[in-house]
Each structure stands twice: as C-alpha cells, then as structure tokens.
Design brief:
By secondary structure, the protein is mainly alpha-helical. Helices cover 61% and strands 10% of the residues. The protein has helices at 17-36, 40-48, 60-76, 90-102, 112-118, 132-154, 157-174; strands at residues 5-7, 14-16, 78-81, 84-87, 123-125. It has a three-stranded antiparallel sheet with strand order 3-4-5. The protein has a two-stranded antiparallel ribbon with strand order 1-2. 11% of the residues are buried.
Amino acid sequence: MVDVTFVCPFCGGKVRGRDATKERIYQEIIKLAAQFGGTWHLVDEYIDCFRVSEKSTMDIKKQLRLLKEIYEILIEREFEYKGKRYRTTREEIIKAMLAVCNGQIVGLTNQNYLKAIVVKNSQRVSAEGMTAAEEKEREQVSRGAGEQEATFLEQAPEDVADHLRNILNTLGDKT
C-alpha cells in the first residue's frame, strides 16, 4: 500500500493512510474478539500458531483474515477439507484448536491442520448440504409416500373405480 497522507479540510490535521487502515483493522479485530466471547483467548492462541517463528510478529491484516476464517468455521460449523464438505459441532472445533495449541506448533499456513483433526469427529455433507443420516431420513419419508401410492394402485379395480366416482361426484357437487 502506498503511504498517503490525508489532510482534514476543517482542522488541517494530517493522518497517514496506513494508520487509518490499521485503525479500521484493529476495530474489526476487536469486534470479532467480542463475537468469540469466552473462546477468544483460545482463538488468539491458535492464531499465534500461524507465526513464522515463536518470536516473530504477524501482520495485522493476516491476523484479521485468519480470525475471519475461524469465525466462519465456528459459526457455520461446516468446512471443506480435501474437496469434501463436513459438518461438526462447535465443541469439536474448540477441542481441535486446543490440540493444535497444546502441540505448540508454529508456521501453519492454512486451516488444514485444524480441519484434519476436526474431520475425525465430523459428518460428511452431500452437495445438497445434508448428512448421510438426513439423506436416509428424507429417503424413508419419500419411500413412505411411494408406498402409499403403490397401495392405492394395488387396490381392487372396483375399489379404485368407486374411489374415482366419489371424487367425480364431489367435484360435480362443487360446480
């Protein structure tokens, strides 16, 4: 970013563009910290695992990007790993972050290490956004409707004819 200095037209005060950007980023980080609530300290410790070394600093733009990624994973409770979608619980994500932090790992480049831990206790999600159990339930419901339809068609022809006459009579009464 080119460092531009802005001059206030009213007071003549000068503000560096880089400082204004940092201020905005810090405000976003503070808002996210509030959103994390009680898990903020763990999330902050987890973000430190993305430092190049234990003593190195991290650009605040990178911190913000990582915080947003973690926030999305915690809120959505769904993530993609190796081209497949998974759904898990907030508790499993927190356990995985704790495991990463306890491992005192530094130099992470993406969330895949966390996802590799979480995926063990996650459910695979289909392209429609449903877990295997949800798809099975939907299939059973649709099969139940199909069975009712088949039962109707399996009735004796005179029963079907009577049923259709009743429908026609009911419709005739309404016209």
